[in-house]
Amino acid sequence: MLAFAFEEAARRGCALRAVHGWKMPLAYTYVPFFDPDNEKDIGRSVMRMVDDVLLPWRHKFPDVDITHSVFTGSAGDHLVRASRGAGLVVVGRHSRRSPLGTHLGSVAHAVLHHAAAPVAVVAHE
């Protein structure tokens, strides 16, 4: 998915915005001694992880201007909002080998139906 997004941004000569969502495990909502600072610490760790994942792509595509954001909450909602003003939204989906059941997740489904820009759904392992 990242390869496709960077290649498209390079081909179009435009900037790339990477958006990554995450959620606290449900178990944390039931812990009576949960420290809200833990969520901030985890958020910083996720931001560093995204930086690390994007680093080789920044080197491979030095002419692509990239920004990124990390958020908690519904990925579909955030991606739909981020689609405003975008030329293309690239969404990943897991490859499913089973011939039965849905092959499109809830995030890709929401983005396909509500994004303000064209959407490319790219399967990945």
Please give a structural write-up.
With 125 residues, the chain is α/β, with parallel strands linked by helices. 42% of the residues lie in helices and 21% in strands. It contains 4 helices and 4 strands; from the N terminus they run H-E-H-E-H-E-H-E. The protein has helices at 2-12, 36-60, 75-82, 106-114, and strands spanning 16-22, 66-72, 89-94, 119-124. Strand 1, helix 2 and strand 2 form a beta-alpha-beta unit. The longest helix has 25 residues, at 36-60. The mean pLDDT is 86.
Question: SSE layout and pairings?
Answer:
Elements (H helix, E strand, L loop, with lengths): L1 H11 L3 E7 L13 H25 L5 E7 L2 H8 L6 E6 L11 H9 L4 E6 L1
Parallel strand pairs: 1-2, 3-4
Helix pairs in contact: 3-4
Strand content: 15-25%
Assign a percent range to the helix content.
40-55%
Q: Would you count the extended β strands for me?
A: 4
Give the spatial strand order of the biggest sheet. Answer: 1-2
The run of helices and strands is: HEHEHEHE
Structural class: alpha/beta
For the termini, the CA-CA separation is 10 Å
Largest sheet: 2 strands, parallel
Shape: globular
- Radius of gyration (CA) equals 16 Å
This entry's quaternary arrangement is single chain
Keywords:
single chain; two-stranded parallel ribbon; 125 residues; two-stranded parallel sheet
Summarize the structure.
The protein is an alpha/beta fold. It has helices at residues 2-12, 36-60, 75-82, 106-114; strands spanning 16-22, 66-72, 89-94, 119-124. It has four helices and four strands; from the N terminus they run αβαβαβαβ.
